[in-house]
Amino acid sequence: MKLIAETAWHHEGDFKFMENLVIEICTKTKADIVKLHITLDLDEYMEKKHPSYNVINSWLFSKEQWTHLIKIIRKNKKELMLLVNDLAAIDFAFNFSPEYIEIHSVCLNDIFLLNKLKKHIKTDVKVVLGVGGTSIEEIEYAVNYLEHPNILMMFGFQNYPTVYHDINLGKIRRLMKLFSGAEFGYADHTAWDSPQNELITLLGAATGVGYIEKHVTTMYGEERTDWSAAISIKMFRDLAKKVEILEKLEGDASLAMNQGELEYSKFGLMKKAAVLKVEVHAGERLTKEKIRFTRTKSLSDLSQLDVIQSFGVKVTKFLPVGTVLTSKLLQREIG
Questions:
Q1: Res. 197: pLDDT tops 60
Q2: 275 DSSP 8-state letter
Q3: What is the domain extent for residue 25?
């Protein structure tokens, strides 16, 4: 499972703040991916009459500033996720060969962005689709339009902050089945001061997604953009430790028994082994009437099923009452 450290608009145009945030994430956390929101053409992204236009316009970074931040991320060997809000941002993003390029849910069916992306994206780059707060029809349209073999769907949305009963993990699991060809992630936006913050994030992770995203801040609890869902550097480190435990708990989904299960399932000491109720002579055939199953002091290499499937097989020598059956006491190999 990969951890995504989300920076978003938390910088509010303060480049030094953003530079420090990126450095702190890269050097003091186990984030696998650092996510940047890049807007270069605000007039394409929103009209001047939008109530947030003037504020966001004052927050925009230059290409040179974005390049500087990306170099910090690359220097620290973190993966790069670039969320692009306009056509110029897409062109700019491709200069840095990002592992992930994201279309936000607010732009999910913007065919102009999708078309630009479709023309330039390589198959080894994951297209991240923000699908929080979108309908199945909107998701299907974006997936079908892109026809990209490497889709990552990110669930979760920010409504400052998201309350747990709006997350709907049951819906997430259903969507994962409907779009089984994609990869999935969960972007958690639980309130920064909620005592259930970490628990809710881990429960989202436990749905089987491969990515977890959290807003991260160096000014925990300070009121600024996206602060309501932003956790501290320390909290992010602690979360990484819990996610590691969760990954080990999840396992590899192999149906074969692992070493711990094999140790537990030893026949004789743990599981019941087959023991003779009567004496049996060499050449005599084994039947169910001649055995019973019980836990024993000694080990057997025969499972209960092995023994059942050996009814009718001849024994190799005289066996007294109480003998624990093993494969060497039967004339053929079992299994």
A1: yes
A2: E
A3: 2-250
